[in-house]
Every structure is written in structure tokens, then in C-alpha cells.
Design a protein that fits this description.
484 residues; 2 domains; 18 helices
């Protein structure tokens, strides 16, 4: 079964570092066990007859199903099928796992879908991306991205040798491939990823050609070290129901002279071509589409928790509370409406691939950086000091002070036990290390939010809005000055 196959595939010699030690195996390690169990169950859905059509599609000419992130959409139904698979996995994880591979898979699928157009960047690109797409699809590979350079000194660029030598760069070429050295961040899901999609993020100049690349790097590559952050996982699900199952580990990647085979080097040595590939509309629209579909599930989840908290303490009758709860509903509906707009106004690209309207997706991603922190703020205001009065565990409900626990923790609409469970869930969402990580993630996963808004302005057809203004003033001036 695919779930077990996925777990077994992680014993491939990869170098995962956690708390100063290289782990022999992550499968049963407390920091990863709950998350891997969740992913195993998601993978298993592709083998379940009653679920596989919700999350996957039948590979043409084969009896095998693949996840719909690998589906190239040519019709509205296929675009809807991609949405359905993203929505289902996201609902199963309450939107709390943003890098279940369907984003990076969609990026690869987009490059594959646009392969005829993109071969202009490199004559070998079409063959390489086709071969890898089919391999990743057929082997159920988990993929993630790492495109950010390490934070060393943001005031200096590649003209500073201290910076240049630590940003990922090619140190030499061989007949087998290129050898790279440096670091990349932040690779979410890195310990259990099969391959990393590595690319340059900065707008390098021609003299920085050794830093310009788009690579697909196996996680078990010799010389590649996956350095994990502190774990936010918790084995006690009653106290940390989210941390127990959904802690997507983030990591920094150290490339200590790693050989990347030529077949995994999609582009290198030309910054303009790298930027052109990264800007490809087909790939970005398909990948970013997954981002916003997943985000809906997360907004629905935090809204549901907030509603439940408000009801449990009897504050839903207050007007100022109703206003805040109503604001959460508008957040959900705005993102849903933007997804509908992006899908209904989808247009075929040059290859006939039905591409969601990227402007609406960009808008959803940009406002999402403000929506989620605001949702956290509202939940904090509704529950207020109640989040700090929950007991350390549920054991006291069955001990000597059980009667007092039931008396003083009772809610307006729920029992004392259910109320404590609810508040522990809410705290895991907004106050725990995992919750804080998620708020930070939603602020910055799409890049610099300031630049995101600025790019929307720079890329917008401004004349469409400005020209009617001048036309109105032109007509007014022809009418002369009114005299009394």
C-alpha cells in the first residue's frame, strides 16, 4: 500500500540533523511520527476505491491512480478535479499542512504542461521535465521547494564575497553534472521529502551566473544536510491536538559540494532564463491555485474554532462579538469568491492548458497575509484570558478534585471537559509554538508581502483605469466654465 511504501522510502540514507545529531531513521522519531502518520493516511487514499477519485486521477492508459496535483487541466472539469483534491487533503488536515507536496508537484506539472514553450530556454528542457514529471507522478514522490538564500547580511549582495560563497552556487562542472555549494532555506517538509525543487530567487546579473539555476535535488544526495528547527510536535494529543499530527518540519539545507546529475539540472548559468522559467504563467497559476484552495480550509478551521469558543462562553449575543465573527465569514467568502473567479475566467495557454486567472490568485495570496493574522487576533480577543486558565492536563477531571473541575470549568453550552478540550485546541492554534509558526508562515510564505502588493501594481493594466479619468476631464474642459 502507498502509505507504507512512503514510510519505507524514507530509509534512503538521507542526512537529517535534529538536536545536534544525525538521525538514523525519522519514521518512529517523536518529532516526526505524528506528521508521518498523517501523510501515510493521506497517501493511502489513492488505494481506497471510495476515496481515490476525490484526490486522484487515473493515469491515461494505466490502471494506476496518481494525485491530481499531477493532472494537466485542459477542461473545466479537470480544473475542478484539481481543486477537489486540494480541498479534500486540506480539509483532512484543517489547512494546517501547507506543503503536502501538492504545491511543488503543481509547479513541476506546470513546467511539464508548458514544456513546448519552455524548450526555447534550453533544448534539453522538454526531455528533462517530461522524464521527471512522469517519474514523480508514477512514484508518488513528495516534493518541496527551497528558494530563499540564507539570512547573513541583507544590507550586502553578491559583490560581498562573504555572501557570495554562502549563497548556493556552482563550483564546477563535470561530465556527470554540476557540483554546488552553499545553503537554501526554508524547506518545509524537508525531512520527509523525496526531492527538492531548488531555484534562484534574486534577480541576478550576468556576472552572477554561477548562482543562477533551477535544480531538482534528491533528498539523499551525498553532501546534502537537512538541518531541522526545533520540533513543535507533541505526543500528548489531548493537550496539543494540532502539534501531535500536523507539525510540518522546516529546515535549512546545507550543500557541501553536492553533485546534481545533468538530468536534474533544468537550467543553470543564465539568470534571464532562470527568471523566465520562474515567471512562467502556467506553472505559477497551477501552483498558486493550490495555495489559495488550501488557505480556505485553514480559514474555515480557525473560524469554526472561534465560533465554538464564542458559544462555549456565551458571548455570541454581544454586538461587538457578532461583528468580529461576521468579519471571519467575509474573509472566507472573499477567498472563495476569488478562487471561483480564477477558475471561471481560466483561459487556455499556448499549449491549450486551462490556466486559472492569475490576477485573482495573486490577490488572494496577498490579502491572505493579512487575513490570517487578523483571524488569530479575533480568536484571541474572543477567548481572552480563558486561554490561560486551562489546566495542564485532563487528568484532574478524574482525580480528587474532579467535582470542582466540572463545577468551575463548565461552559455556557458545553460540559467542562469539552470546554477545556476546545480551549486547548484553540491555544494550539494561536498560542503554542506551532500556532506562532503558522501565523508567521501565512505572513511570509508567498514572499515579501510589501513586494507582493507592489508587483500587483506594477503588473496591472493601469491605463484601463487612468484613461477614463483624463477622458472625463477632457469632456469637462470642452464644456467650458459654468457662470452664475
Amino acid at each position: 500500500m502507498r502509505g507504507e511504501k512512503f514510510l519505507n522510502s524514507l530509509n534512503d540514507g538521507r542526512s537529517v540533523w535534529f538536536e545536534g545529531k544525525r538521525l538514523e531513521s525519522i519514521r518512529d522519531h517523536p518529532a516526526f511520527k505524528g506528521t508521518l502518520s498523517t501523510i501515510r493516511d493521506l497517501f493511502q487514499m489513492l488505494d481506497e476505491p471510495h476515496l481515490r477519485d476525490k484526490v486522484g486521477f487515473k493515469i491515461p492508459g494505466r490502471e494506476r491512480y496518481a494525485h491530481s496535483s499531477f493532472l494537466v487541466p485542459y477542461t473545466q472539469e479537470q480544473l475542478t478535479q484539481r481543486n477537489r483534491s486540494f480541498s479534500y487533503w486540506s480539509a483532512e488536515t484543517h489547512g494546517m499542512m501547507s506543503r503536502l507536496s501538492d504545491y511543488a508537484r503543481s509547479l513541476i506539472t506546470g513546467w511539464y504542461a508548458a514544456r513546448h514553450e519552455l524548450k526555447a530556454l534550453d533544448p534539453h528542457f522538454e526531455h528533462k521535465i517530461t522524464s521527471y514529471y512522469e517519474h514523480a507522478r508514477d512514484q508518488d514522490l513528495i516534493l518541496t521547494t527551497a528558494i530563499i538564500d540564507p539570512q547573513i547580511d541583507r544590507s550586502n549582495g553578491l559583490d560581498d564575497s562573504r555572501i557570495a560563497e554562502r549563497f548556493l552556487h556552482v563550483i564546477r562542472e563535470t561530465e556527470d553534472g554540476i557540483i554546488v555549494r552553499g545553503a537554501k532555506m526554508i524547506a518545509t517538509g524537508a525531512p520527509y521529502t523525496h526531492d527538492f525543487v531548488i531555484s534562484s530567487f534574486l534577480k541576478f546579473t550576468a556576472k552572477d551566473a554561477q548562482h543562477a539555476h533551477v535544480l531538482i535535488v534528491p533528498a539523499n544526495s551525498a553532501g546534502l544536510h537537512i538541518v531541522c528547527r526545533e520540533s513543535f510536535a507533541d505526543q500528548f494529543e489531548q493537550n496539543h491536538p494540532l502539534g501531535a499530527k500536523y507539525d510540518e518540519m522546516d529546515a535549512v539545507l546545507f550543500f557541501d559540494d553536492v553533485l546534481i546529475p545533468w538530468e536534474r539540472v533544468l537550467l543553470h548559468g543564465n539568470s534571464e532564463k532562470v527568471l523566465a522559467l520562474r515567471a512562467n504563467k502556467t506553472a505559477n497559476a497551477l501552483a498558486f491555485h493550490q495555495n489559495v484552495v488550501r488557505f480556505v480550509a485553514k480559514l474555515e478551521f480557525i473560524t469554526g474554532v472561534t465560533f465554538a469558543v464564542a458559544e462555549s462562553i456565551g458571548v455570541t449575543g454581544f454586538l461587538h462579538v457578532q461583528e468580529k465573527l461576521g468579519e471571519l465569514i467575509t474573509q472566507m467568502d472573499v477567498i472563495k469568491a476569488l478562487i471561483i473567479a480564477a477558475e471561471t475566467q481560466a483561459k487556455p495557454d499556448n499549449s491549450g492548458v486551462l490556466v486559472p486567472e492569475l490576477s485573482y490568485i495573486d490577490t488572494a495570496r496577498n490579502i491572505g497575509t493579512k487575513f490570517y493574522p487578523r483571524a488569530v487576533d479575533i480568536l484571541q480577543q474572543i477567548g481572552a484570558g480563558g486561554f490561560m486558565q486551562t489546566p495542564s492536563g485532563m487528568e484532574d477531571f478524574y482525580g480528587p478534585i474532579s467535582k470542582l473541575m466540572h463545577l468551575y470549568f463548565e461552559g455556557a453550552t458545553v460540559s467542562a471537559e469539552k470546554k477545556v478540550q476546545l480551549f486547548k485546541l484553540a491555544w494550539d492554534l494561536i498560542g503554542s509554538p506551532l500556532g506562532s509558526r503558522h501565523e508567521l508562515y501565512e505572513r511570509f510564505y508567498a514572499g515579501d508581502p510589501v513586494r507582493g502588493y507592489a508587483n500587483q501594481y506594477l503588473g496591472y493594466d493601469k491605463d484601463r483605469l487612468i484613461d477614463p479619468i483624463w477622458e472625463l476631464l477632457k469632456q469637462a474642459s470642452k464644456g467650458g466654465i459654468a457662470r452664475v
